[in-house]
Amino acid sequence: MMHFGTEPIQPAIRDGAERRTSDRFPIEREMRFKMLSKRLADEAGSGMTVNMSSGGVLFQTDKTLIPGKRVEMAISWPAQLDNRCALKLIARGRVVRSESGMTAVEIQQYEFRTLGAHGLAI
Fold it and tell me: How far apart, in whole angstroms, are the C-alpha atoms of residue 83 and residue 23?
């Protein structure tokens, strides 16, 4: 489990069962996304993360994304490599829900990259 110096968000339990298997942490970071579908290839945007876990991310955006579609996200990471090099988290996954300006994505794979001159470009 990753620890970011914040307390995890306690998940809401519905019908006596909790579906999440990992704690969410309230991390607000700038992010950009693009859809990975050929039909939605031009669909891209930006937003701000609300909370994250090792299995998913919830973010605010002015776009409504289609549940079930694959998305790639670049998220500004709060830690630096060797305390001097900015990082971004590149995560790919599936949109679980999108409503009222909030989108939830199940993370299926991720990697860290240096932020570089292109910033959050993906």
Answer: 26
C-alpha span between 1 and 36 (Å, rounded): 28
Q: Model-level pTM greater than 0.90?
A: no
Neighbours of 78 (CB within 10 A): 13
Instruction: Give domain 1-122's CATH superfamily.
Output: predicted glycosyltransferase like domains (2.40.10.220)
Strand partners for 94: 70, 106
* Residue 57, Cβ density class (10 Å: 0-12 exposed, 13-18 middle, ≥19 buried): buried
What digits encode the pLDDT tens for the residues 5-20?
445 544 544 454 445 5
User: For residues 96 and 106, what is the distance between their CA atoms, to the nearest angstrom?
Assistant: 6
Where do the structural domains in the chain lie, given as residue ranges? 1-122
